[in-house]
Amino acid sequence: MHQEISIDALPRSARGKAPEAPAFGATFADHMFCQRYSEQRGWHEAAISPLSNLSLHPAAAVLHYGQEIFEGLKAYRGADGKIRLFRPLDNCRRFNASARRMVMPTVDESFHLEALRRLVALDERWVPDTPGSALYIRPAMIASSARLGLGASADYLHFVICSPVGAYFKTGFEPVSVLVAENDRRAVRGGVGEAKTGGNYAASLSMSERAGRQGYNQVLWLDAIQGRFVEEVGAMNICFVYDGRRIVTPALSGSILPGITRASVLELAPALGYEVVEAEIDLGAALDAIAAGTITEVFGCGTAAVIAPVDRIGHHGRDYLINSGKTGPVAATLHDALTGIQYGTRPDPYGWTVTIDTE
Fold first, then answer.
1. Please, are residues 233 and 178 in contact by the beta-carbon 8 Å criterion?
2. What do you get for the CA distance between the two ends of the chain, in Å?
3. Alpha carbon distances (Å) from 111 to 84, 94, 117
4. Is the pTM of this model over 0.70?
5. Residue (of 100, 76, 108, 74) closest to 4 by Cα position
6. How many Cβ atoms are within 10 Å of 170's Cβ, its own excluded?
7. What is the CA radius of gyration of the chain?
8. CA–CA separation, 264 and 167 (whole Å)
9. Of the N and C termini of the chain, which has fewer Cβ atoms inside 10 Å?
10. For residue range 181-236, what is the model confidence (pLDDT) as tens digits?
11. Which pLDDT band, with edges at 50, 70 and 90, does 359 fall under?
């Protein structure tokens, strides 16, 4: 049986709204959802209340052993004024898959979705209406038991916060540059690369900072065993376009996050006339194909940026220029199609969007 969600809302006069030009993840909506878990009671104390700091014991397991997971999805305000979530149940299912990998309790999918709907409805003024903007929604779960012995926590905190955002990259929908991580590795098969857990991203920071100092926007990660096969780019999945029609993305291997936008591209692209393939991508062969012009486009795909065209790949001191440094037609077509569904300007034959009932 579902528990009830108690709501302690700020008075309307005290509520804020989205800024006109929101930066990514810099401001936060008025309220948050939170529930607690214990072995004795299961999930309990589900509530939506004003955004506040968390209180944790200094020995909380998340602070010492990194037992935590998170998700990311968006609410979009369409030209028709309606607010839509994009594939929220898929995000919840991935959240639960991450929870199982990190030995954490799962959440009820329908209850989780209801919490998202109520939270976004309450903070609907924080869903921006400027083009390319949205309300970014961040569910998370952390281990809260106070213990220093290594082992799965007995207590957990599941919370959801929201942040109005603009484009992930300051340049908007413009090509980005990537640098191949020649020695650093993000994740290994058999590890937790397919889970959305903070340690994966913490492990990427050193190389990401190095790439930034060298003038690149993102890092291209290779497999950890041979350092040969392409895996992800930054915090996104990656796709290579051959001869303007065949889209190839690395097959899920256990070290690659199963992206929701990636899955959307794989389902949407054939309807737009493109062939899609999931396969291992040898970096050397891909760079040769870029140099020969048979790879005509490269783009990343993820919730934050949706579609991010890549204009150059740096490797061993050489830059491989893609499509003369311009956004290609395949990336542009997919971007327009996906955002059209998200903002409600195109039909949604896949049932990906969930409309929010606002007050």
1. yes
2. 26
3. 18, 15, 10
4. yes
5. 108
6. 10
7. 21
8. 19
9. N
10. 999 999 999 999 999 999 999 999 999 999 999 999 999 999 999 999 999 998 89
11. low
